[in-house]
């Protein structure tokens, strides 16, 4: 039994892009977009003076973050941050 290799591509083997793939792609993007945007934290009113509790820096920035939270002035925190990185 031999395989039939043909260089001719039949028109019946194509699936049109527009009605099938495009509509499916739009549906998936809409579904995942609604899931992503419907997180409960997105409906909390904005308070510019309080950092939300769920925002945490990466583990390698935790020491700098702790120093910046302890020092009350922004300039002092920046100076300590710069001095600690220049060592």
Describe this structure in words.
- The chain crosses the membrane at residues 20-38.
- By secondary structure, this protein is mostly helical.
- It has one domain.
- The protein has helices at 17-37, 62-70, 74-85.
- Helix 2 packs antiparallel against helix 3.
- The model has no long low-confidence stretch (mean pLDDT 80).
- Please tally the helical runs, counting DSSP H or I stretches of 4 or more residues: 3
Rg estimate, integer Å: 28 Å
Query: On the 0-100 scale, what is the average pLDDT?
Result: 80
How many E-type strands?
A: 0
What's the N-to-C terminus distance? Answer: 75 Å
Question: Would you list the SSEs in sequence order as H and E?
Answer: HHH
Query: Outline, from the CA principal axes?
Result: elongated
Count up the domains: 1
Beta-strand content estimate:
under 5%
Please mark out the parts with pLDDT under 50 across 5 or more consecutive residues, or reply none: none
Structural class: mainly alpha
Which percent bin holds the helix content?
A: 40-55%
Largest β sheet strand count, sense and barrel closure: none
Which helices and strands appear, and what pairs or packs with what?
Blueprint: H1 17-37, H2 62-70, H3 74-85
Helix pairs in contact: 2-3
List keywords for this structure.
87 residues, mainly alpha, 3 helices
Short summary of the structure?
With 87 residues, this protein is mostly helical. Helices cover 48% and strands 0% of the residues. It has one domain (11-85).
């Amino acid at each position: 039994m031999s395989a039939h290799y043909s260089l001719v591509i039949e028109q019946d083997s194509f699936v049109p892009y527009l009605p099938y793939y495009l509509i499916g792609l739009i549906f998936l993007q809409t579904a995942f977009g609604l899931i992503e945007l419907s997180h409960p934290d997105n409906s909390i009113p904005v308070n510019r003076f309080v950092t939300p509790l769920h925002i945490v820096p990466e583990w390698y920035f935790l020491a700098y973050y702790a120093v910046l939270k302890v020092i009350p002035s922004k300039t002092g925190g920046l100076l300590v941050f710069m001095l600690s990185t220049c060592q």
